Amino acid sequence: MGNKKRFGIISGREAIVLGIVLAMTIVFSFLSPSFRTYSTFVSVWDCAYYVALMAIGVTFPLITGGVDLSIGTGLVCYSLVGGYLIVHKGIPVAVALLITILLGVLIGLFNGVLIAIMDLPPFLATLCTCMITRGLGPALCGGFGVSWPSALAADGWFRKVFKFTTAEGKVIPSGIIFIVVLVVIMSFVLNHTKIGRYTIAIGSNKEATKLSGVNVKFYHVFAYVISGFFAGLAGIAYASTYATIYPGAGAGFEMDAIGGAIVGGVSASGGSGTILGTFLGVMVISLMKVGLPFIGLQANWQQICTGIVLILAVLVDIKKKKVV
Fold this sequence. Notes:
The protein is an all-alpha fold.
């Protein structure tokens, strides 16, 4: 299970993905001087925040051998509802933030019950909740976009967690610290707690794990609760980064998160993966999204390149398993 060959604190796979991140940065910088700007650096992180949060959470279902397709439309749904409650119902921002996370947890719990207890296939179960969350947010908000309080407003303090502007007008991507702390915490959870060890065990051999006396259903459900929790956090990051949340957005966000996790070394068939690898994989995806337009390739090509990268990552995973 996991990556066995390590170089210091990172595995061989993580070292390769880190090398890809550095190589992409160098290539984009060489091909486009405009890429070598501070604003581009901020743009990469604007994209990485909510994708990284989704990816950290979805790593757990992926390691169990499942998937969570509801996180993309979910994050938009949760941020729409939270923003609507602030703007139209006068609910304090702190309460709306908690509700945003709680909605993610509830959908994650619902996914977990459908999959672990009712034995629905993960793809089908989370595809259904993807459709539910895609319609639920706009339905509750009347089909209109919503705007959370701006950074200049008294109750816009939450935006500074991810990005704030100095008195001189310089934008600081403060969310880097938040994401790095979460990567460290969730790496510990995955590698050094029962939740993490049993998540990996379920993905490696579910029946053997059950026979060893582990409450497989509980930990299987909990993997999806974690995914939902981080989708809720991603909803807050999305609302913090962009001025307005629009109904209908979010489709495809889950592919960026799942793609980042797989590029970072999470096995497509379950049983292995790391949070650091997932984070580095997300940086690959984010660099492609921001960097490709600088060399003349627009959004369609970004999707094509992402698909090719994912195919290569899965092929590497399959080859690695055959060698083992």
